[in-house]
Amino acid sequence: MEKILEYFPKLTDDQRAKFEQLGPLYEEWNDKINVISRKDIENLYPHHILHSLGIAKVVKFRSGANILDLGTGGGLPGIPLAILYPEVNFTLIDGTRKKILVVEEIVAALGLKNVKPMHLRAEELKGRFDFVVCRAVASLDKLVPWSARLLSHEERHALPNGLLTLKGGNLRGEIKALGKGAYVEQFPLTDYFPLEYYMEKYVIYVQR
Ligand SMILES: C[S@@+](CC[C@H](N)C(=O)[O-])C[C@H]1O[C@@H](n2cnc3c(N)ncnc32)[C@H](O)[C@@H]1O
User: Which of 5, 44, 49, 85 is deepest in the core (most CB within 10 A)?
Assistant: First the structure.
């Protein structure tokens, strides 16, 4: 929790309380349904919650924005972002029913009113969003077409609507495979969180 407070020092009491509740909730649910590597659950805050919030360092979502978390698993990055942005609407989808059950339980326990969990594959979803966010779901050549048809044409952020995905390692091949038509920007997470764990971890932005 200290790392969250260090890099997000302006949290309200309510946000802080909700982030504090996340630890015990994920521990409880991860014992029943594996949504976070059991080896790494002790690093929930510095490795998973802070990682999810990396997206908020790249773009500040505006009040009333609609954000899709594609392949949310147990709610990452969507739940931490929904705590940080209570005035933004989050739709969290996953193709695996039991993972959405965990999201539903955590959202209910936190009393988050701005999160809509749905058991659905991205290819079946209808709707329009300002940004599609995701972590550890698929290669860019899959994520880009899945998200492209779901992005709204109405622009209301400093960054044009697009895909924001958390990825790591050498991404040159994946980015090259998208071809010259795609505008891609790579934001190193060490710019925001100067920690060894975040070396070679990025937010990848692909413009609609
Ligand atoms: C490795 S998990 C990552 C979960 C979460 N984003 C995280 O970082 O903890 C990938 C998830 O993406 C989901 N997924 C993969 N392709 C999908 C698709 N086309 N539509 C919806 N969910 C998908 C899988 O069911 C799985 O739960």
Answer: 49
Cα-to-centroid distance, 60 and ligand 1 (Å): 24
User: Does the predicted TM-score (pTM) go above 0.95?
Assistant: yes
Q: Which residues form the domain of 39?
A: 2-207
Structure tokens at 144: 């880009």
What is each CA distance from 117 to 7, 101, 108, 183, in whole angstroms?
27, 9, 11, 30
Counting ligand 1 atoms within 8 A of each CB, the residue from 90, 137, 140, 165 with the most, and so the one to mutate, is 137
For the chain, how many structural domains are there in total? 1
Report which secondary-structure segment, H or E, holds 201. strand 201-207
Q: Would you state the structure tokens that stand for residue 120, as one six-digit string?
A: 């659905």
CATH of the domain at 110: 3.40.50.150
The ipTM assigned to this model is 0.99
